[in-house]
Structures are given as C-alpha cells and as structure tokens.
Amino acid sequence: MRVAIVHDKLCEPGGAEFILKILMKIFPSADIYTLFYDRTQYPFLKERRVITSFLDVICKVPLLKSRYRLLFPFVYWAFSSFDLSAYDAVINISFIGGHTAGEKALSSDVAKQSNMRRVLGSVDGFAVGKKSDAGLQIHTNGGIPNRKPLKIVYFQTPPRHLWIEQDRYLSSVPGIFLPIAKKVWNYLKAKDLNVAPSLWYVLANSTEVKKRVEKVYGIDNVQVLYPPVEVRKIIKARQVRRVKKGDFYLILSRLMEYKRFDIAVSAFASLRVKRLIVAGTGPELAKLKRIASGAKNIEFLGRVDEATKLDLLARAKALILPGREDFGIVMAEALAAGTPVIGYYKGGAAEILTGRQANVAEPGLQPGGVLIEDQTVKGIVSAIKLIEKQRWPVRKLQALVEKYDVSNFVEKFKDEVFKGLAPES
After folding, report:
1. Which of 188, 216, 215, 299 is nearest to 251 (CA)?
2. Is residue 200 within 8 Å of residue 151, measured between CB atoms?
3. Nearest-CA neighbor of 195 among 227, 162, 165?
4. How far apart are alpha carbons 378 and 384 in whole angstroms?
5. 330-374 per-position pLDDT tens digit
6. Are 263 and 375 in contact (CB under 8 A)?
7. β-pair partners for 219
8. Residue in 238, 423, 242 with CA at minimum distance from that of residue 337
9. Per-residue b or e along 50-71, where b marks 16 or more CB atoms closer than 10 Å to that residue's CB
10. Beta-ladder partners of 3
C-alpha cells in the first residue's frame, strides 16, 4: 500500500514532529510532503523521501528563514500543488492548512459565494456553517469512501492564523492596508472552508481541538485520538536513577505569543526569590529576555537536547504553561516525570491535569497541578503558592497520563482509523 504523510512544516522540532516520527514507524515506506523543510533539524528524515512545496525555496533565504509565518497567506496554493493521486492513503497532520493538500479549490461561483457568506457570518472568529456528517459517520453505511486516495486528517488545530489568532496577524498590518488585508483573510477562510466536503475521516488531538474543528468546518462526530507521548519511557528513566527535586520552576516549549509566557516571566521578575528556567526558542525569546532584564533568578537555556529536557522535567518544582493549549504534550511528559503543572483552565491543560475529557475545567487545584483562570502575574503567583502548599506523589501524577503512551496511540491508529487497511509489514 502506497502511503503519503503530509506534515504542514518542518522548521522547528516539537510535538507534531514526534507524531510524524511515530507514523513513519507504522508506515516505513511512506513519502513525506511538507511546505518547508530545514534538513539540519531532522536527522531522522535523512534517508526518507521528502517532497517540499515551492515555498521551500523562498524559506531558504536567510532573512526569511525565521519569518516563514509571513508566507502563511500562500499555503493553500502550495498545498494544492501536491499531486497525491498515486497514493492509496494520505495522512494529514494538520495545523496550518495541511488538510487541503492535493485538493483543488471548488471553482464554481456559487460555492465560492456560499463559503464566503459562511465566513462573513462568523461568530467570535469561528465560522458558523451548516452541519455536515464527517468523521466516523460521514457515510450512510459507516464505511470508507470509494475514492483514491483514502484521506485521513489528524487535526492539531484548525489554522491559527485564520480562525484563532486573526486579530494578532491583522494588527501588524499598516492601517492604510487593513481593509485589503481583511478581504484577503476572508478569501483565505473561504478557501479553507472549500475543502470541508473532502474531510472524510477526521481526527482531533484533544477535546479542545475537536470542538474547534466541529465549529469551524460544520462537522459532526470528530473523533479524539490523543497524540503519542513517551510516558513509559519517561517513567522507566525516572525509576532507573534517583531524582532530587531542584529549586526551580520550568518553561519548556516553543516560545510563541499565544502561550503567554510573558506573564510567567513577569511574575518571576517581580518575585526575585523564586528561580525560573526557560528552555526553548521562538519568536517571543527576545521579548521575554527584555522582560527578565536584570532578574538574576531567570535563566534562558535555549533549545535543549532530549536528555537535558527529561532531567529538567524531573527536577522542576512545576512546569508552567499559561496559554490555551491545543493539547500540550510537554504537560503529559512533565506528569510522567513526576512534576505537577501550572496551566490554563481552558484547552489541553483542562483535560490533562484533571484526567477528564473536557476542554474547560474548574480553576484551582487539580490532580495534576493548578489551573489558572486569570492570565496575569497575580494568577501565576497565586498558582505557585498553591503548588508549594501541596504534596505531589509521583505515582499519582504518572497515573494521569498512562493513557497517552505511544503504544496506545499506535494501537488505536491502526484499529480505529484504518479499519480494514493493514499498515505495511
């Protein structure tokens, strides 16, 4: 069976790239399609066939390499340029538009006008459209469509630049060009919605993302398949060596604006006596360093290797992730390492820290840490006080995340997604 895996971009190693790595083990002969590919970051792809879009050439220009997000308005043309017709199955790991890969936009004026009306009729940045059957119930007989290739979309989130962070992107546009920019954004939303009829088999990585996908695309019955986490490996590594808790709190992530690390760094800059380690890189790094300027209790490590990451996670007093996460693999890794988490009461943290399938939870103490309601310095400081008042038995924290182990992901992907289509042997 010929399989293609579409991964939106390969520029910064993270959780989505680990999903790709696991899928490559299930399908060892699969071809990889992506918009951008930084070969220096992914040694595990060295022997694989990786097909890139025309945007990859632009991204190799030094001045644009770190500003690839400026190319987001062009991703739909890039994705549609991929010819995937020769494959039996296409798996899309989608977070900036990969679900449109290989699809030609609907050409009729009626379809374009209909989708544009849906976009312009959006509420709170999400399209409100007519509900359609998709996911496991898309067909009246519950089967797979008789069309080649079989298309499976595993949403990490609907495109943030269109549906979640539109205001942030548009705020950087000079006022004189804003009316044009808004029209372009609406056009891009329409193109994104045009592909909805081809979303035959749809999965989401969390309850949070499931609700987003259902609301944006008007799809029912989206199934949740949690992303793979090396839970057993982390637990075993912790058992092998004695772990002595350190005196520091930890940020370990891509440093993105929506993750709200600014409030965490500001909190520690004001506390002075509490130590914070920031491990990771991203667009917010310079801003966070400015906030921390002069604060000797805040240390920036940059990107760290796997061994250092696991050591930091095991020794930290708590991991801090104050933004609204799609899922948050690093939170599950922290709990597996025996470390509680300070997270936001909406999004992935609500699901991981409570152990329940929900995207909103009660703020305050939870089995896996503390959920904050106020994304403020005061909210972070209050959460730290709660963390330090409690005992956090390692085994109880680990029990919360055992269901996310890699082995469960592989089993469910084979059994629930492919139904009768056996992976390559």
Report:
1. 299
2. yes
3. 162
4. 10
5. 999 999 999 999 999 999 999 999 999 989 999 999 999 999 999
6. yes
7. 132
8. 238
9. bebbebbebbeeeeeeeebeeb
10. 89
Q: How does DSSP classify residue 140?
A: T
pLDDT of 172 higher than 80:
no
Contact, 40 vs 12, CB < 8 A? no
Q: What pLDDT score was predicted for residue 107?
A: 35
Q: Which residue has the tokens 């029912």?
A: 220
Cis peptide before 62 (omega within 30 of 0): no
Q: Judge contact between 353 and 368, C-beta under 8 A.
A: yes
Q: Max CA-CA distance within the chain?
A: 66
Amino acid code (one letter) for 401: V
Higher pLDDT, 288 or 14: 288
Residue 397 three-state SS:
helix
Q: What is the pLDDT of residues 317-332, one digit of tens each?
A: 999 999 999 999 999 9
**Is residue 313 within 8 Å of residue 290, measured between CB atoms?**
no
Tokens of 30: 């699969």
Contact 258, 165 (CB under 8 A): yes
* Cα separation, 318 vs 369, whole angstroms: 8
Q: Is the pLDDT higher at 333 or at 147?
A: 333
- What does the pLDDT look like over 10-47, one tens digit per residue? 887 778 889 999 999 999 999 999 998 988 888 889 88
Q: Which two tokens stand for residue 308?
A: 């250092």
Mean confidence (pLDDT) of the chain: 85
Instruction: Determine if the peptide bond prior to 149 is cis (ω within 30°).
Output: yes
Structural contact between residues 337 and 395, judged by C-beta atoms closer than 8 angstroms: no
d(CA 158, CA 161): 9
| CA dist., res. 265 & res. 377, Å (int) | 9
- The alpha carbon dihedral of 31, 8, 70, 323 has a sign of negative
Summarised one tens digit per residue, pLDDT across range 59-71 is 677 666 666 667 7
| pLDDT for the residue numbered 416 | 61
Tokens matching residue 163? 């549906």
Amino acid at the residue 27: F
Structural domains of the chain ordered from first start? 3-228+406-417 (3.40.50), 231-403 (3.40.50.2000)
